[in-house]
Automatic annotation (TrEMBL):
It comes from Parasedimentitalea huanghaiensis. Its EC number is 2.7.1.40. It catalyses: pyruvate + ATP = phosphoenolpyruvate + ADP + H(+). This is Pyruvate kinase. Keywords: ATP-binding, Glycolysis, Kinase, Magnesium, Metal-binding, Nucleotide-binding, Pyruvate, Transferase. Belongs to the pyruvate kinase family. Residues 5-322 form the Pyruvate kinase barrel domain. It is an enzyme of class 2 (transferase). GO terms for molecular function: ATP binding; kinase activity; magnesium ion binding; potassium ion binding; pyruvate kinase activity. Residues 356-467 form the Pyruvate kinase C-terminal domain. InterPro entries: Pyr_Knase (IPR001697), Pyrv/PenolPyrv_kinase-like_dom (IPR015813), Pyrv_kinase-like_dom_sf (IPR040442), Pyrv_Knase-like_insert_dom_sf (IPR011037), Pyrv_Knase_brl (IPR015793), Pyrv_Knase_C (IPR015795), Pyrv_Knase_C_sf (IPR036918), Pyrv_Knase_insert_dom_sf (IPR015806).
């Protein structure tokens, strides 16, 4: 299913989007990737959504990527005798391990690891940062605090600890169970929450054991500090701006987003920009101008994908939200300024033969009348390197590996086509020409660029580039066997 844009759209599924009809409509409207939020729903419900997505995929003959988003450790306060209390700035408030119901002076925080890591002067943020406490003194089972920013605190509100490294693994027991379940189910990507360091990613990769690619969510200040090593360890990145905006000054988030997106592109690894992109469309059929500008900014920056969360999962207008994303992307990518920005931000990286081949393919395609770049790929690496170049013509990623086609559906500009395994280069060129014509990318009178690796079906061997006609008769008459 050809899109008239290169950036991809991720749609979260939930109560508003769990039927076959809605999921199919979302895909037909523009959703390239479906996110399954493991924080909500039983394994049975997740399996039902997965099965529906695969039905849509089969019915439309269109590879669809499925992203399972693991919950990660959840840090929450306990309960209050009155259900909630009002905290006043300047007043004292205590958090401890006492399981007794809370009141206006204290509440249980049932996470010993927090107290072990805290120190005087650190901050505790409650309810997405709406309440801010500063630690005056602390021990192994308590923290005496002063309320800096007050407000209503109620049962089981979330707690963020931005100033210290918590000795918590990114994977909870629930996450490990969920990971094994969704890998056996057959998802394409795993989104890993609460990443603080590279070793968090290595643990998830070991458990996934190649069954799914691992995408790290950058949502903590320590993850920003350790981003280089996290990027190296990950297959992809999600810039989770919600939690970043809680634990860091909101003014710091935009430049961090720009740096992370550019780093991911240089590393040829897909990056999703997420959280509150069209938040008002949960309840309104129209977004705000600021939200449209926010989505456009992520696209101008070169992000591989933009994501809808509650807008498509629980909102009243899931189809309209995807349509809005699609419309914004189409408009931005048609803007000559977009082309200039993308070209100016292109940075040469890598010195392998494959790096040279994909760079040459882009140069040839943009300087001559080439309609598409067709790359044969087994592991997906060649397609990712081609996407890093952000060429001005469509990318057709041809593979005999179903899992590769699905994973690449997340990557910028990749139009994924399943094709039989190839043995000879002439057959590969013919398959590429057929795919370009069938997808409406080129006509018989047009030319395409074909990249491949010889010998075929060996990952990482991209070593050949051919400018080829889309007319099979010309291929057969001019190509040696």
């Amino acid at each position: 299913m050809r899109r008239q844009r290169n950036v991809k759209i991720v749609a979260t599924l939930g109560p508003a989007s769990e039927t076959y009809e809605t999921i199919r409509a979302l895909h037909e409207t523009g959703a390239d990737v479906f996110r399954l939020n493991m924080s909500h729903g039983s394994h049975e419900e997740i399996a039902e959504k997965h099965a529906i997505i695969r039905r849509v995929e089969q019915d439309l003959d269109s590879p669809i990527c499925i992203l399972a988003d693991l919950q990660g450790p959840k840090l929450r306060v306990g309960v209050f005798a009155n259900g909630s209390e009002e905290l006043v700035p300047g007043e004292k408030f205590r958090m401890d391990l006492d399981e007794a119901e809370g009141d206006v002076s204290r509440v249980c925080l049932p996470h010993p690891v927090i107290f072990q890591a805290l120190e005087a002067g650190a901050h505790l943020l409650v309810n997405d940062g709406k309440i801010k406490l500063v630690v005056d003194s602390c021990g192994e089972d308590f923290a005496e605090c002063t309320v800096e920013i007050g407000g209503t605190i109620s049962n089981r509100k979330g707690v963020n600890v931005p100033d210290v490294e918590l000795p918590l693994a990114a994977l909870s027991d629930k996450d490990r169970e969920d990971l094994e379940f969704v890998c056996n189910l057959g998802v394409d990507w795993l989104a890993l929450s609460f990443v603080q360091r590279a070793k968090d990613v290595f643990e998830a990769r070991g458990l996934a054991d190649g069954r799914a690619a691992v995408l790290s969510k950058i949502e903590k200040p320590l993850a920003v500090d350790n981003f280089g090593e996290i990027l190296d360890a990950s297959d992809g990145i999600m810039v989770a701006r919600g939690d970043l905006g809680v634990e860091l000054p909101v003014s710091a988030v935009p430049p961090i987003q720009k740096r992370l997106v550019r780093s991911c592109r240089a590393a040829a690894k897909p990056v999703i920009v997420a959280t509150q992109m069209l938040e008002s469309m949960i309840e309104s059929p129209m977004p705000t101008r600021a939200e449209v500008s926010d989505v456009a900014t992520a696209i101008y920056e070169g992000a591989d994908a933009v994501m809808l969360s509650a807008e498509s999962a629980a909102g009243s207008y899931p189809i309209e939200a995807v349509q809005t994303m699609d419309n914004v992307a189409t408009e931005v990518e048609a803007d000559p300024t977009y082309t200039q920005i993308i070209a100016a931000s292109r940075s040469a990286k890598g010195s392998s033969i494959a790096d040279g081949i994909v760079a040459a393919a882009r140069e040839i395609a943009e300087k001559t009348d080439i309609k598409a770049i067709c790359c044969f790929t087994q592991s997906g690496t060649t397609a990712l390197l081609t996407a890093r170049e952000r060429p001005g013509v469509p990318i057709i990623a041809l593979t005999s590996m179903e899992g590769t086609a699905r994973r690449l559906a997340l990557s910028w500009g990749c139009n994924c086509v399943m094709t039989p395994g190839q043995e000879r280069f002439k057959g590969a060129v013919v398959s590429a020409a057929r795919a370009a014509r069938a997808g409406g990318f080129a006509a018989e009178t047009d030319q395409i660029v074909v990249t491949a690796g010889v010998p075929f079906n060996v990952p990482g061997t991209t070593n050949i580039l051919r400018v080829a006609p889309c007319d099979e008769r010309l291929i057969y008459s001019t190509d040696p066997e």
